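Bug #77: duplicate submission created two jobs. Keeping one. Sequence:
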Amino acid sequence: MVTVRRWWERKTLHLSLVALALGGAWILRQTQGEFLLEVYQAITRPLQMLPAGISPEERQEELLKNARFLELQAKITELESQNQKLQDLLGYVQKEPASSRPIPARVIGRSADHWWQQVTINRGSNAGIREGYVVKSEGGLVGLVESVTPNTSRILLISDIKSQVGVTVSRTSAKGVLRGDSSAEGVLEFYEKVPNVKVGDVVSTSMYSQKFPAGFAVGRIKSLDLKKLPASVAKVELFPALSSLDWVAVYPNTKNSESETQQSAKTEKSQ
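Kept job's structure:
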């Protein structure tokens, strides 16, 4: 009986080894060796980063040093990127006449629920910003200052579905209204039924705009639907990178200043 048990135990061991070998062969065939390579790399990757012949405590300390180094490297890369963006903005601002140079500001707040509607910047009334001021970036028109606190301002973007901008096609002076579409594109509704426009035409703010001064670049016509009723429409690719705004420039709104001056004149006449 003992002999039979020993024989069965040996056979069971042999069968287990055969099954393990067959299973390993099947895995190798199905994954073409990638499974074992992944296992090997997972085991040896931490060891490959460390010199041989050091204690576990020294290994742990070295791993922490490597982690700190990678963290600092990431921070340096981010700071270099921010510095370049700021330099680009300052170069853009310095192109403006000294008497009308804008206020540089950085985007510090943006809600995922209102990504294409509004942003918050780190300058407010203490920096001279007022409601109705115009906001631009290097690409073109960004939006309008909607509300102000002493140190922040909330900007209504031109991509907001509530936004309406009077615009004109630079090449032909065809005019219309650009509406936000909660995306990097806007919808331009023309005043004319069949306007003289084509794909690629540049769009800028019109002198008939009620909120913005004329001549601010907005975007480029991406597609046309001249059969749309009651008026022809176009998709406009917006120039500013509204999806990834970082630094902006805030300008006094001359359109508002003109309106205030006219209103004051009317008030004086009535008195």
